[in-house]
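Form P-L/3: holo structure prediction, ligand nicotinamide-adenine-dinucleotide.
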Amino acid sequence: MRSVSIFGATGSIGENTVDLIARAPQDFRVVALTGGRNIARLAEQARVLNAEIAVTAHDELLGPLREALAGSGVQAAAGAQAIAEAADRPADWTMSAIVGAAGLVPGLRTVARGGTLALANKESLVCAGPLLMTEARANAATILPVDSEHSAIFQALTGEDMGTVERIILTASGGALRDWPLERLAQATVAEALAHPNWAMGQRITIDSASMFNKAMEVIETREFFGIAPDRIEVIIHPESLVHSLVGFRDGALMAHLGAPDMRHAIGYALHWPDRRHLPVARLDLAQVATLTFRAPDLVRYPALRLAREVMAAGGLAGAAFTAAKEIALDHFIDGRIGFMAMAEVVEATLDAISRDCGLGNAPDSLEAVLEMDNLARQTAQGIARARAG
Ligand code: NAD
Ligand code: MG
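OUTPUT (holo model):
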């Protein structure tokens, strides 16, 4: 029996993780579950999985959470500090599925106690890759990727020597707007950006998929997780989303990972690693699929991909500034205050302003430095986005 904790249990990745665990209750003992405002769902998950403790991120929701858990024997706690402390509780396996920079703290605390961290929260690697990876190495912790692309790469690398890897190719669906004429993109609405062709995901990541900010983060995530040079990471548009990514070796071989677009594959792989168990995902019928198509991404259409290269070249805290500025730009787009293409402009102007004023190159060597940059970039991006919105 393995003990598990899920940070961000009520989100899209969290629900899929709960689903897999609930199918095999005899195999798991649940330690901590955390969520946000959806107290009813968090309490329901905690009851079904018989968790030790349920934690909401919001202090003021402690009362309602306690009430919802009354008589269940599950402890209740609230606030950022309680989430951090929940990560200190021993668990064999921990899912990091909080969205945004808030996911960094429980991830760091998990690797600090030498735990196994299943990492969906890509922001931790983009903001603080060196910090998280160094802390993991120092404490003999294991990090398993959960982003579908990185799980695919990780699987293709099983038994291989990183020294023989020539390149990593990340596939991208191209998002909801990939076939739109370039000149219409600036007018795209939130609803249009949300019509993702293949993956059912949360609202923010779906828009990030249309703008390719998601892929830009994944390029940086690839660099940090696999320690590969930026010029060896490629992005290819693959509208069918069936090839989840590829690894190219020095003998010319390309190893691809294929499967149905269902996050339960990557989550389940990390949950059972190093075993492979039966997973409830659809099987691909290749005769029915018939064709797989690929095309090179256009950097004018997807400026986020160009910005990812600049962020990697700048190094240091540029990733933290990039993520924070992207979150603010996305808020403004979702609220209808700036256009779709203006998101990248806001991010680029934020990076330029910070790099001019105080530089981005300092190493992200402490949590405080990362959070300080996150804060500075949010404020800078707010000012820039407001000025643009008029
Ligand atoms: P989501 O918005 O559906 O869920 C986020 C979870 O985090 C919720 O439980 C929410 O309550 C919690 N949360 C939000 N803000 C918080 C805060 N400040 N403090 C504590 N908890 C907070 O997000 P998601 O789509 O499940 O994505 C989670 C992470 O996984 C993200 O980093 C995302 O990039 C990554 N990811 C998601 C997918 C996907 O298919 N959804 C795929 C790959 C990677
Ligand atoms: Mg992904």
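COMMENT: The mean pLDDT is 96.
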